[in-house]
Structure formats: C-alpha cells, structure tokens
Amino acid sequence: MPTHPTAPELAWFKSSYSDAGQNCVEAAHFPPAIAVRDSKNPTGPALLLPPTAWIPFLTHLKA
C-alpha cells in the first residue's frame, strides 16, 4: 500500500469529460481517503478527501 499520495504506484484516473489539454483533475484511491491532484503537476501536492466528501467535491466541480 502506498504511504504517500504522490507515490508512483497509485492508479491515477481522469474523468472521461476531461478536455484534450492538461486542464484536468486526477484522482486515486488512497485508503481510507481519495487523493486528488492537478494533472499538470503530478509530483506536486495532493488533496486528501475522506469518502464522505468525495460526492460533494464532484458536485462542486460540475457546478
């Protein structure tokens, strides 16, 4: 199990709605949280969200 949210073994994913450029948010499962990062800065910091905050976070992004 990774010990840091920027660990290379995490399986980062982007939304299928992402544009062709690099203006994307990526996410990875990082139990017990979900790690979120800027796709333009993959070695930069990651935001860790508890599972209860994931849906509200996605709702805010869509708005």
Question: Can you describe this structure?
Answer:
The chain has 63 residues and is an alpha+beta fold. The protein has one domain (13-62). The protein contains one helix and four strands; from the N terminus they run E-E-E-E-H. The chain has one helix at residues 51-62, and strands at 13-14, 25-30, 33-38, 47-49. Strands 1-2-3-4 form a four-stranded antiparallel sheet. A hairpin with an 8-residue loop joins strand 3 and strand 4 (47-49). The longest helix is centred in the C-terminal third of the chain and has 12 residues, at 51-62. The N and C termini lie far apart (33 Å). The model has no long low-confidence stretch (mean pLDDT 82). This is DUF397 domain-containing protein. It comes from Streptomyces cylindrosporus. Residues 10-62 form the DUF397 domain.
